[in-house]
Design goal:
single chain, alpha+beta, five-stranded mixed β-sheet, five-stranded antiparallel β-sheet
């Protein structure tokens, strides 16, 4: 045997490229088993009913038509046979992620779990014949003059893979083939564009990494306490996760930089994301920290982007907050608890000259109708927000955090006015960095152009934007106050501990909401917004649009998980026909459905994209005294009814914009659940 006692050469033909939305139309397995001194080869293949139409371009490429698979078994019916033939074997395929992803997705739909060691023949060809590109299956067949009868059909391609492996063993020797396969099986998920030893040089240490595309463009930037393990996880993810598979397939090169600990990794990660703009770091690129300014005239808070402020201008403001939504939510909570007028403060709309809604409930002192001066409302709001006021910088000099770990050079992270100026690897470079960015004479003047750049890199952003939780920073962390003429480190540390360290740690932790959990619920649909889903439904023309056009517009129940097939019985039950609703009160299309009987079918569409983000005070939330949640997103629902595949009725609804703020208060904090059980225990 070339490299394993049992090998399964697998090929599938499909209706598309996405394992989540497309289906298999043909599957073939060439199982090669070692039986003593001989090798047994067992070939098996079958057409598969995809339970949906095959796109024209796929029919042209493979020659498989709808008529050929109409009476073929479904994948669920073939699943026991496929599992039996794959059991205990190394899964070998050309572009193995594709075939393995489809097989695993189909088996999961049929209720079977499946994992296997995989070997990609593209990577095998690159490793053993590095100078003989390209490595497509057509090129390999021509290069080795393989006798293949049916290309682009499952059995023909699976046979070609088995012939290719035998040809490699003859040309390079069986020992060389076993060694190459062993190297690839050690890292089964590495993309074909990366060498088998791509992870060998990556250290198992803290740092930042970047996945780069074919032309060196940044795809994704991340950080980890173990770079090698984290990078490897990108290429061993579930092949049914479309985004992870796409990222892995686009990666052609790796770049990384080791740091002394997690603080340096956090700061450098933010700098790389802001300066390189990687295409897959969507959420981090859009984060824009803000401050809140509350003036007496006009008496309403203003949300100010942090990148528009000089460092010293943030003193006395409130924040920083991770987003405008988070700042507004905290303002609403503080004003509501203090009994202030939301309309006067510009946080709620009202008609001119009318009392606000809270005043009608007795929760407003009457600033909206002139019974209280607006300046008093602003003063009361500042008092309610006092806990979130930006503290003054402790002193007139920059401060550095020195991060060190065994076996790694230290990182000196220099801060000024709560902003990260940069990092260095020794004291001299840190002093130079501090002197270059500190205003002359210690004056708190405006920073240079680098700090006013659009988009907050760590060199311009408050450290709160990358919060450090207690105990999270690995290695030894010490603080040193820098200014010319002082060299007594112990004296500096004592002064910092009295004046600056507490304020620095407090600023790093207060108002930092990124540590709080968040949860996203999203139906995997092609619509990013409510409007996009609505437009698809509005394009449907009653008595004209057919089922084929619905599929072309993305309303295919076999590809779109938001679409559910409805039978005639489902439609009757949905409209409660025969009970509360009389047939004559129904739409003409629904009456046509009733008359058609079982010829009437339909689609029910339910999609949602909701985000639940915890906001507020980190410590009150962690200790369970008060939990605040911002809920945003949208939901969409629609119904389509067809008679003989022609649409006769459509309707849609939902919530185009969800903006909710939930507050849960627990007076007993972490003991709340115990306190609620006390009455039942007494009884």
């Amino acid at each position: 045997m070339p490299f394993a006692p049992r090998i399964a050469f697998v090929d599938v033909e499909t209706t598309g490229t996405s394992p989540a939305n497309c289906r298999i139309t043909e599957v073939a397995i060439v199982r090669v088993t070692e039986e003593g001194e001989r090798v047994a080869v067992d070939e098996w293949h079958s057409l598969v009913n995809p339970q949906g139409p095959i796109p024209p371009e796929i029919r042209f490429l493979t020659g498989i038509t709808d008529a050929m698979v109409a009476h073929a078994p479904t994948f669920a019916e073939l699943a026991p046979t496929i599992l039996e033939r794959l059991e205990g074997a190394v899964f070998v395929a050309h572009q193995a992620r594709f075939d393995y992803g489809f097989i695993r997705a189909e088996l999961e739909r049929a209720g079977h779990g499946f994992t296997a060691r995989t070997l990609c023949t593209v990577r095998l060809s690159r490793l053993m014949d590095p100078d003989r590109a390209p490595h497509t299956l057509d090129a390999i067949v021509a290069r080795y003059r393989l006798n293949v009868t049916e290309r682009h059909r499952a059995l023909g391609d699976a046979q070609a893979l088995w012939l290719f492996v035998q040809a490699l063993a003859r040309r390079h020797s069986a020992i060389a083939l076993r060694q190459a396969a062993s190297r690839l099986l050690q890292h089964p998920g590495l993309p074909a564009h990366l060498g088998a030893d791509a992870l060998a040089a990556v250290p198992p240490a803290p740092g930042v990494y970047a996945l780069l595309g074919q032309n060196g463009q940044p795809l994704y930037v991340g950080r980890s306490a173990n770079l090698r393990r984290r990078i490897a996880s990108h290429f061993s993810a579930d092949p049914t996760r479309e985004r992870a598979v796409r990222l892995a397939s686009e990666t052609h090169r790796l770049e990384w930089r080791q740091t002394a600990g997690e603080l340096g990794a956090r700061l450098l990660e933010g700098h790389w994301i802001r300066t390189r703009q990687p295409s897959h770091n969507i959420a981090q690129r859009r984060t824009q920290p803000v401050f809140v300014r509350i003036d007496d005239e006009p008496a309403r808070p203003r949300i100010v982007p942090a990148d528009l402020l000089a460092p010293e201008a943030a003193q006395g403001l409130f924040g920083p907050f991770a987003s405008r939504a988070g700042a507004r939510a905290l303002l609403l909570q503080a004003a509501g608890q203090a009994g202030l007028c939301l309309a006067t403060l510009g946080l709620e709309r009202r008609a001119p000259g009318q009392a606000c809604f809270r005043h009608q409930l007795g929760r407003c002192a009457g600033a909206c109708i002139g019974q209280r001066a607006p300046a008093l409302e602003a003063q009361a709001l500042r008092a309610a927000m006092a806990a979130h006021r930006m503290p003054a910088w402790p002193g007139a000099q920059p401060i550095a955090l020195v991060e060190s770990a065994p076996g790694a050079p230290p990182d000196w992270h220099v801060f000024w006015q709560w902003r990260h100026l940069g990092s260095a690897h020794d004291e001299a470079a840190a002093r130079e960095l501090a002197a270059r960015h500190r205003p002359p004479g210690g004056a708190q003047g405006r920073t240079g152009p680098r700090h006013r750049a659009r988009g907050l890199s760590p060199a311009a952003s408050p450290p709160c934007r990358r919060p450090i939780r207690p105990g999270a920073v690995r290695g030894t962390l010490s603080a040193v106050l820098y200014h010319r003429g002082m060299s007594d480190t112990s004296s500096l540390r004592q002064r910092l501990s009295r004046a600056g360290a507490a304020s620095l740690v407090l600023s790093l932790l207060c108002a930092c909401q990124a540590l709080l959990p968040e949860m996203n619920t999203k139906t995997q649909v092609p619509w990013e917004t409510f409007g996009a889903a609505r437009d698809v439904i509005e394009r449907i023309k009653v008595d004209e649009t057919r089922r084929e056009q619905l599929s072309a517009d993305g309303l295919d129940p076999y590809k779109n998980p938001a679409v559910t097939l409805l039978t005639y019985t489902d439609i009757v039950q949905r409209f409660a026909i025969g009970s509360a609703v009389r047939p004559e009160e129904l739409d003409r299309g629904i009456r046509a459905c009733l008359a058609a009987g079982k010829r009437c079918t339909g689609y029910s569409i339910a999609a949602r994209n909701n985000k639940r983000e915890r906001v507020g005070n980190f410590w009150l939330d962690s200790l369970n005294f008060r939990q605040e949640t911002d809920v945003s997103g949208w939901t969409f629902n629609a119904l389509i009814i067809m008679v003989d595949d022609v649409v006769v009725f459509t309707v849609f609804g939902g919530q185009p914009k969800i903006l909710e703020h939930e507050v849960v208060r627990n007076p007993l904090g972490p003991l709340q659940s115990w306190g609620e059980r006390v009455p039942s225990l007494i009884r």
